[in-house]
């Protein structure tokens, strides 16, 4: 149970921070400055192009190396902090693409109509474009959040005491690996099932609002 709670905490913090990275990445990709736009596309391409496990290793061991070079002594990186940052980087890269696609999917005529009505560009963005983009991005963003719950298992490799690591410890203590990992699989199914139900409910509410 401790491992499941830790997994939820890890996923929740990573979701919040990853959403911030996603928003920043989306803004960079849509920025008019070519350098900033290139940084945004590079971030998404690199993180999406390498395995998430390598991202975890890069953050954990790279962070220790960077801190060591600054302090002049070996510094052990906190496993939870490294796990959150790595998962947030991965989630943010996909979230940036989702947000960018949703914003570009809003017809240009909507922006022009808002401008015709006297709205400034920021006002048009927040009152006309953003609500439509949010409805478009809801399903893929929610699906990516469900994937994030499962991705928390990879940070067990750096010593994070989440569900998968607890299952490994229990299997070693009881010498019943099949039973312990099967129990972990059932817990993951429950967590992702709850997340899927919440997503479905959010989509229904969004459709009712749109219909109204």
Structure summarized in a few sentences:
This protein has helices spanning 2-30, 34-49, 52-71, 79-105, 108-116, 121-151, 163-174, 177-211. The mean pLDDT is 87. It has a single domain (2-211), classed as Orthogonal Bundle (MetI-like fold).
Give a verbal description of the structure.
The radius of gyration is 20 Å and the shape is flat. Helix 3 crosses helix 4 (79-105) and helix 5 runs antiparallel to helix 6. The chain has 8 helices and no strands. The longest helix is centred in the last third of the chain and has 35 residues, at 177-211. By secondary structure, the chain is mainly alpha-helical. The protein has helices at 2-30, 34-49, 52-71, 79-105, 108-116, 121-151, 163-174, 177-211. It has a single domain (2-211), classed as MetI-like fold (Orthogonal Bundle). The model has no long low-confidence stretch (mean pLDDT 87).
- Sheet/helix structural class: mainly alpha
CATH architecture classification name: Orthogonal Bundle
Please, how many domains?
1
CATH hierarchy class name: Mainly Alpha
Shape: flat
Q: What is the alpha-carbon Rg in Å?
A: 20 Å
Main pleated sheet: none
Number of helices: 8
As for the CATH topology, it is MetI-like fold
The counted number of beta strands is 0
Mean pLDDT: 87
């Amino acid at each position: 149970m401790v491992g499941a709670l830790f997994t939820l905490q890890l996923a929740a913090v990573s979701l919040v921070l990853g959403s911030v990275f996603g928003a920043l990445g989306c803004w960079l990709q849509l920025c008019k400055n070519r350098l900033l736009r290139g940084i945004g596309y590079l971030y998404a391409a690199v993180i999406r192009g390498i395995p998430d496990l390598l991202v975890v290793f890069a953050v954990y061991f790279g962070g220790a190396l960077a801190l060591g070079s600054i302090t002049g002594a070996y510094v052990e990186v906190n496993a939870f902090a490294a796990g959150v940052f790595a998962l947030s980087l991965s989630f943010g890269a996909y979230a940036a693409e989702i947000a960018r696609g949703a914003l570009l999917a809003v017809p240009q005529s909507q922006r022009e109509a808002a401008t015709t009505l006297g709205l400034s560009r920021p006002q048009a963005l927040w009152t006309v474009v953003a609500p439509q983009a949010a409805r478009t991005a809801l399903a893929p963003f929610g699906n990516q959040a469900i994937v994030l719950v499962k991705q928390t298992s990879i940070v067990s490799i750096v010593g994070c005491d989440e569900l998968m690591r607890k299952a490994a410890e229990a299997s070693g203590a009881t010498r019943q690996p099949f039973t312990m990992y099967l129990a972990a699989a059932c817990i993951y199914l429950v967590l992702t099932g709850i997340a899927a139900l919440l997503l479905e409910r959010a989509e229904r509410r969004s459709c009712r609002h749109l219909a109204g």
